[in-house]
Design a protein that fits this description.
The protein is α+β, with helices and mostly antiparallel strands. It is built from 16 helices and 16 strands.
């Protein structure tokens, strides 16, 4: 099933139902950080492949000059990367017989054979049950893309893998490394070839610092949070501004924490408005240090592309007659793997399940799943009613101290499911 695009509500659903959802987003959209949750937003809701609502609100950026939000604006998805890119890539490799959920990490990273992390399995990375909570930013220890497992040796597990649910990023950074090692491709190339191009997600991509930003999306990129607004943001600015190297790090040498290849340094500077606000480079500091491509963050996309992705899940892995994933992969990804475990939520493979009072709303039926992103993004998928709902915002332009989005996304999805 292919989603039919429309900028208007379908007549088969009362206008008042969708108007309530629109009203919530509009109410919290504005230029006052005290009263509003974001300067702008894009919303898309589909049911059974039909677009019920696709609207843009407010501004994609406020300075130096206000720019109106458009329905095809391209957002930094933050942790939606974990579900849309990294999890899907892992499922593709499972379908191909290249990896298994019970494979221990030490199989791919022998350097971890004498470390508790080496006994953890792929499923622990996917279900947020790794037990690794403490973390030092990669740019502070001079981590390089190729040697991520070695740098993780210094981190102690807080509890045995598989015994508790605790959301964190390091496990997905490691999973991204595993995917690259097994596939022999970079994560951005692998996901583009195996997922995004087959799904016709033409505006979905990583934006690595060693490649130029495609011209077709350059003017549609939504900025995020000023680096100067946080200590870690200022620290990574200093790291990227450190001494330049003429070429990449020589084999066998560890990159000094403040050194950065000249080409990456130039691209980093070019992708910040007024030298401060990221636009076309991932907001997440660890992903940025890894050149813009990581298993935890770095993906950019539009609401329409994400709706296509969600519809693929509803179609049991099929898009336009082509299998992106097997129906079996969809089944295992959307089953509850953490029932009965202590922790902050229930998890599938890469996905979070809706629970009362949780970030995915109060009224979603059992079996719904989704994922949120720190930049102000979220996708919900309801297999029972064949609904996909996407909310993308630029809430970080008010800085992360503005927490209204935590409430707004629940209010929004409640109005959607109250009607449809």
């Amino acid at each position: 099933m292919t989603i039919e695009m429309s900028g208007e509500c379908r007549a088969s659903y009362p206008q008042s139902v969708l108007a309530k959802a629109s009203k919530v987003i509009r109410k919290w959209c504005g230029t006052n950080p005290e009263a509003h949750a974001y300067p702008g937003a894009v919303v898309l809701v589909t049911k059974q492949g039909k677009t019920l609502m696709h609207e843009a609100f407010g501004f994609m950026r406020l300075s130096p000059d206000p720019v109106p939000m458009s329905v095809d604006s391209v957002f930094d998805l933050a942790s939606l990367t974990k579900a849309v890119a990294t999890t899907t890539a892992a499922l593709v490799l499972i379908d191909q017989g290249e990896i298994g959920l019970d494979d221990p990490i030490e199989y791919f990273a022998p350097c971890l054979a004498d470390h508790p992390l080496g006994k953890a399995q792929i499923r622990h990375l996917l279900t947020q049950t790794l037990g690794l909570t403490g973390w030092t930013p990669l740019f502070k220890i001079g981590a390089t893309r190729d040697d991520i497992p070695s740098f993780m040796r210094a981190v102690e597990l807080s509890w045995p893998p598989g015994t508790r649910v605790q959301y964190s990023c390091p496990g997905f950074i490691l999973l991204g490394w595993v995917i690259e090692k097994v596939s022999g491709m970079t994560l951005d190339d692998f996901t583009r070839e195996m997922i995004f191009e087959p799904l016709e997600m033409k505006d979905t991509m990583f934006l690595p610092l060693n490649k130029p930003v495609p011209d077709r999306i350059r003017e549609r990129l939504v900025p995020t949070e000023p680096r100067s607004a946080t200590l870690r943001g200022r620290e990574i600015m200093e790291a990227f501004a450190g001494p330049e190297m003429e070429s990449s790090v020589p084999d066998g040498r560890r990159c000094p924490e403040s050194w950065m290849p000249r080409k990456l340094q130039r691209q980093w500077s070019a992708r910040h408005i007024a030298g401060d606000i990221p636009c076309g480079v991932v907001h997440d500091e660890n992903a940025a240090w890894l050149g813009g491509v990581a298993g935890n963050a770095g993906l950019f996309s539009t609401a329409q592309d994400l709706a296509n992705f969600g519809q693929m899940y509803l179609n049991e892995g099929v898009h336009s007659g082509r299998h992106i994933l097997s129906s079996s992969a969809i089944r295992i990804a959307t089953q509850d793997w953490t029932a009965g475990l202590p922790g902050d939520d229930n998890r599938g493979l890469g996905w979070q399940f809706a629970t009362p009072g949780g970030p995915l709303g109060d009224l979603m039926p059992p079996g719904c799943f989704g994922h949120t992103g720190f930049t102000g993004t979220v996708i919900w998928i309801d297999p029972k009613h064949e609904v996909v709902a996407v909310l993308l915002t630029n809430r970080l332009q008010f800085t992360r101290s503005n927490q209204h989005i935590l409430r707004v996304r629940r209010l929004f999805i409640n109005t959607v499911f109250a009607g449809i």
